[in-house]
Design brief:
single chain; 212 residues; mainly alpha; 10 helices; globular
Length: 212
């Protein structure tokens, strides 16, 4: 059987599932959000001054970054889970979150004295960040890997890694409501490293649980 015929057969199989893949992904995001919210509220919860912090641009910008990551990863993983689906546009959108963070970091470097750069980068909660973004994201990652098995990704390791990025964007969004470090330097460093952990776990999950 030629590769093109195999892809068409896989695509037909995906479309014949009891639940359409698009519906499965929407349900998965809803379930993952509930799981992430439960872990968040049962462990660290929001920061005490949340209502005050919500009036500051630095605090709100964190959600712009994390939501941009989650939305772009969602678009890409939906494409990757369907054989033969175009991925170029969705892949290009993955540059949005890093670009936004990069612009914010540059603006902060211009606005903040050089002597404060190290303090802003290290922050006060880097170990909590590194621990809880992966912790909050583990449940959602498991949900997303399960949906990938419902589809037929031709690049399971890549699809698993994007599942980790999606879980990371979701978990980082919840964690941002707890985090006292609102500096883009902190977010660019420690949020990124925490999401990379989930990305690596997702790639491993794709390698061992999603392949067909």
């Amino acid at each position: 059987m030629r590769t093109e015929d195999l892809i068409k057969a896989l695509d037909a199989d995906v479309r014949s599932k009891a639940m359409p893949l698009g519906s499965a992904w929407r349900m998965a995001v809803a379930v993952a959000a509930v799981v992430a919210a439960a872990v968040f509220w049962l462990t660290i919860g929001p920061r005490p001054d949340l209502m005050v912090a919500m009036h500051t641009m630095r605090f709100l910008s964190k959600f712009v970054f994390t939501i941009a990551l989650g939305v772009s990863a969602f678009g890409l993983i939906r494409a990757l889970s369907s054989p033969g689906a175009p991925t170029a546009r969705a892949t290009a959108w993955m540059a949005l979150a890093p670009a936004l963070v990069g612009v914010a970091v540059i603006l902060e470097l211009f606005a903040v004295p050089r002597a404060e750069w190290g303090t802003r980068l290290v922050g006060s909660n880097m170990m909590i960040c590194m621990a809880f973004i992966p912790l909050i994201g583990l449940g959602p990652l498991a949900v997303f890997l399960w949906v990938l098995r419902h589809g037929a990704p031709t690049r399971p390791v890549l699809a698993g890694a994007v599942a980790g990025l999606l879980a990371g964007g979701l978990s980082a969004t919840f964690y941002a409501a707890h985090c006292f470090d609102d500096s883009p330097l902190f977010v660019a460093t420690w949020y990124t490293l925490a999401v990379v952990i989930l990305t690596g776990l997702g790639a491993l999950g794709g390698r061992f649980f999603v392949r067909w």
